[in-house]
Design a protein that fits this description.
The protein is of the alpha/beta class and 328 residues long. It has twelve helices and ten strands. The longest helix is centred in the first third of the chain and has 18 residues.
């Protein structure tokens, strides 16, 4: 009995000690971006990073990357961006407050609606810059959940939404998921210190089984621009957006393309099917990426079919397909 009581006490002390750890709070990015940069001013005066890779001549469409909070300094999908530029698309990048090159407290927010408002501002800015040019949203992992949230609440038509391994239904995976001890610490901090920066979102990349995901995680861990430490209230608010994926798909009028890595150890593919089944627009496509993990390998190995889907969903292409002249 005494041994059991001592074990419980030791566990409680360990949780308390771990729960008291926290990381420094930063309000400015540790790196500055290379030009060209198109800075925006967000609510509260924060400086928001925006940049676009444009094609030669008049663009046929815009792909707005809706990023997750762990965006880093490495170029985002270089093969895809080059292919988009060659095909006449603008590839537009935007970092919400507290992420990437944008200012704002990194890893914590007392009002998460400001973060979501930054995404809405980025879409409004794209439409201002490029007028009537068709706009596609593309989100990866948690970014896919943000893309669906943005599409569901946007009042103007979108040409399409691309979801890559959306973080909706998750499963436990070594190096990618918290341990039982982590959950104890999370609970402690959620109750007593919800605003403290306590959760390392990329603590054990070397344990990840998928080689490309492991290399990507290790590169992110070494990248000073990547936000690694988050508060519990921040992650809880993000989780609520992720939980709305299927609901938001039902509110989204745009066609949906979903890329699913067949070796993604983090995402439960049944959640992907649930999202597509709930989609309001029945123009849905799922492409299973052979050998694709959770990270960018599920994008960079699918450039050709991804760009083909975008081109097929340009309004001009759709109109042509529906015209009498295209009938046999």
């Amino acid at each position: 009995m005494r041994a059991r009581s001592f074990a419980r006490l030791s566990c409680s002390v360990a949780v308390a000690l771990l729960g008291c750890a926290s990381f420094p709070r930063m309000t400015e990015p540790p790196l500055q971006p290379a030009p060209p940069v198109e800075w925006l001013r967000g609510e509260g005066g924060v400086r928001l990073y925006s940049s676009s890779v444009r094609p030669t001549g008049t663009p046929v469409g815009v792909v707005l990357f809706v990023v997750h909070p762990e965006v880093g300094s490495a170029p985002l999908y270089p093969k895809l961006v080059a292919a988009l530029q060659e095909a006449g698309f603008v590839a537009s990048m935007f970092h919400p407050r507290g992420t990437g090159y944008s200012s704002g407290l990194r890893g914590d927010l007392d009002d998460y609606q400001l973060f979501l408002a930054d995404h809405r501002q980025s879409l409004a800015e794209v439409r201002t810059r490029f007028g009537a040019t068709p706009v596609f949203l593309m989100g990866h992992s948690a970014g896919a959940a943000f893309a669906l949230e943005l599409a569901a609440t946007d009042k103007s038509p979108l040409a399409g939404v691309v979801l890559v391994n959306p973080a909706y239904k998750l499963r436990n995976a070594e190096g990618l998921s918290p341990s039982f001890g982590d959950y104890l610490v999370f609970a402690w901090n959620m109750i007593f210190r919800p605003a403290a920066l306590t959760v390392d979102m990329n603590s054990k990349p070397s344990a990840v089984a998928h080689p490309a995901d492991r290399a990507e995680g290790e590169a992110m861990q070494a990248d000073p621009l990547v936000v690694r430490y988050f508060s519990m209230r921040y992650l809880l608010a993000q989780r609520q957006v992720m939980d709305r994926c299927a609901t938001n798909a039902a509110l989204t009028s745009a066609p949906v393309l979903l890329l699913q890595g067949d070796q993604d150890l983090m995402v439960d593919s049944r959640g992907n099917d649930e999202i597509l089944a709930a989609a309001r627009n029945r123009d849905t496509t799922k492409l299973v990426v052979a050998g694709g993990g959770h990270g960018s390998s599920s994008v960079e190995t699918m450039v050709e079919p991804l760009v083909a889907w975008l081109r097929a969903h340009l309004p001009q292409a759709s109109d042509l397909l529906r015209s009498p002249a295209s009938e046999p």
